[in-house]
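Listing S7. Sequence submitted for prediction.
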Amino acid sequence: MPVALAGGRASPRAPPIALLALVTAIAPAALHMLVPAFPLLAADFDAAPADVQLVLTLFLTGIATGQLVYGPVSDRFGRRPVLLAGLALFLVGTVLCGVAWSLPALIVGRTLQALGGCAGMVLGRAIVRDVYDRERSASALATIMMVMSLAPSLSPAIGAYLAEWGGWRADFVLLGMVGAAVLILTALKFEETHAPAPVNLVGMIGSFILLLRSPAFLSVAFATAFTSASWFTFLAAAPYLLAELLHEPPSTYGLMILLPMAGYILGNAGVVRLSAVLGSVRLFVLGLALSLASGVMLALWCLGDLTSWALFVPMAISSVGNGMSQPPGVAAGLSVYPRIAGSASGLLGFMQMTVAALGTLLLGLLPRNSAVSMVAVVGTSLTLAFLCGLLTLRRPVEGPRSAATAQFSDYKT
């Protein structure tokens, strides 16, 4: 049931779950929708692939930054004004992208899109916590996460066909229409769910420092971050490999990307049952090991006979491993210091997107005339993720056994 706001104010009307799902999914959808059109962007703007790569790199950077900012700002000023401002910024960025007269203008627009759309990713979950009790919030979050999984699964195919039939600007026409509709619905249907309150910035920074000094947190944070880097590096490279080396249209990417997306959902589905048998940390490391093995398969296939199946089948297997490893990895990170789980969540998201952005930036600096660069970055990322994951099998060697350390040790067993 809805809960009362702080200070004794009457509890707000809960916003529709469908609306919360839309505001949460809009940024992931925007991220993936344009990826199949990267070769078209390079041709239209007569730009090098490394320059076009910034369209993805800075989008990830914008999401990383927003994950640290929106939570504290909404605590201070309330959820509604901050969410509306974010959605408005997303719409402004989308319009700028649609009319972009140069690649730098498009990159600026994409950065604004990310900074604005990230508000829904951060605040959607916070709003659920504001208005529902534990039982109802679990159901609401499950619905939201399902939509978040579907958004990056379907948006590449939609974006690919739109780009193939109407040019890459058609992607932003659709995103603009969706963004405007979501902004209007939010303004009409969403009441404030959180009483504004002062934010202790010193305490927040102290929480980040505490987490960054914890080997237990860093091991899972970097493992999940390098896993994310492998995925986004593949996303950045695959459209060029299909277009330039295999001479495939954007729609081929839109269809083939469904394989790894389905693999990720399959991995997620196995977490509950397998974690009961293996334990969360063993499942975490097993998922990382499966992803690493698929990276070896990717190298053997792509460096031998490059085909679309050689690209996407290994990454589908890797996505099964990612789906197995990411949920227990994030849960472990949040369990190191449960009292500051909110700060841990924001820092985990920041590290994931930042390392992923660095991976795509590195890819842009390497030669694009073969699959070697992609295989090298993806393989290195998966190897580092697995090595970091192995550290979680060891009990953290720290000083006094604090309650937080004890909980993490119990979690591991």
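Caption to Listing S7: primary sequence and predicted structure tokens for the chain studied. The mean pLDDT is 82. Residues 280 and 398 are 21 Å apart (CA to CA).
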